[in-house]
Structure formats: C-alpha cells, structure tokens
Write a structure and sequence with these properties.
Helix content: over 70%
Oligomer: single chain
Radius of gyration: 18 Å
Distance between the termini: 21 Å
Number of domains: 1
Structural class: mainly alpha
Length: about 160
C-alpha cells in the first residue's frame, strides 16, 4: 500500500518538494558557512562559539548543534536526505534565533531602511514555514532518500543494515 502511495505522488508535488528543499538549502547554507567556515564575512566556528556565549549566554554545545545543523543540514536537504529531521531542526533553530537572538524584540520586518535596532523575524518565519512544509511532505520523489529506500526494496540484505 505504501509503495503504491509513493509512486502515485503527483509530479507537481514532487517538483514543489524539490523546489522547497533546494531553495531552503540555498538560503540557509550561507548562514551555516558563515558560522562554520567564516565565509561571506562570518566569524567562523570559534568566533561563533565565543559570540553566542558572550552575547546571548548560549552554551557551546547548543551553538555547535546550530552550526552543524545549518551547514550540513542544508547540504543534506539539497540532496534530499533526512528532510523531515533537517526541517524540524531548522524550525527549532529559527525559533531560537527569533526569541534568543533579538528579532522578536525588533518586530516583524527586516531592517531594509536601517530605521530599527536590528532585524525583525520576517526571514525566520519564512524559514519556519518552508521547513514545516518539508516536515509534512518529506523528501519527495526527486531525492537521494527515495533512491535509498528503493534500493532497500530491491536488495533486502540492505534492510538489515538500516
């Protein structure tokens, strides 16, 4: 029954899921790269650990999970791996960003005209909405996860290793 459901997924849903995954990954990856590697003007791993702890009081273990989640999660998401888990992780990360990082205090809008103290939660809310959609939909047909699941059906011995 489940296999019949998966194969009957409309092509529009499959393309929409792929689009959501790839564009979410494109939006989140640079933030993870700033935090982990110092790319795009970011502080890098040690700078993030120090900054999150000094500015926000966030423990290094939580900061490390955020960095790993944004960087490696966005790569996995683009490939269609662990989509529901990554989507859920992004929701938690964005809620933390809103309520611990300051956007909740700054209102809804991003700081386009430099008229407020910092950024609002508009971007974070979009990430939450797209992530929630992916938690509900999963990876879709065009994903490595679907290919892996099909190979398990073809080669039953692989199932034992899962």
């Amino acid at each position: 029954m489940k296999a019949a459901q998966e194969s009957s997924e409309p092509i529009g849903v499959s393309v929409a899921t792929l689009t959501l995954r790839v564009f979410l990954a494109i939006c989140v990856f640079p933030h993870g790269a700033q935090k982990l590697l110092g790319w795009f003007g970011g502080p890098g791993f040690s700078g993030m650990l120090e900054g999150f702890h000094a500015r926000l009081g966030i423990p290094t273990s939580i900061t490390t999970l955020v960095i790993i989640g944004e960087f490696f999660g966005s790569i996995a998401l683009a490939m269609g791996l662990f989509t529901r888990f990554v989507g859920g992780s992004f929701i938690v990360i964005m809620l933390g960003a809103i309520f611990l990082g300051g956007p909740a205090r700054n209102g809804f809008f991003m700081n386009y005209w430099c008229r407020q103290e910092g950024e609002g939660y508009e971007y974070n809310l979009l990430i939450i909405g797209v992530s929630l959609s992916l938690v509900i939909l999963g990876s879709g047909k065009f994903s490595l996860q679907r290919m892996i699941n099909k190979s398990r059906k073809t080669f039953p011995a692989i199932k034992r290793w899962h």
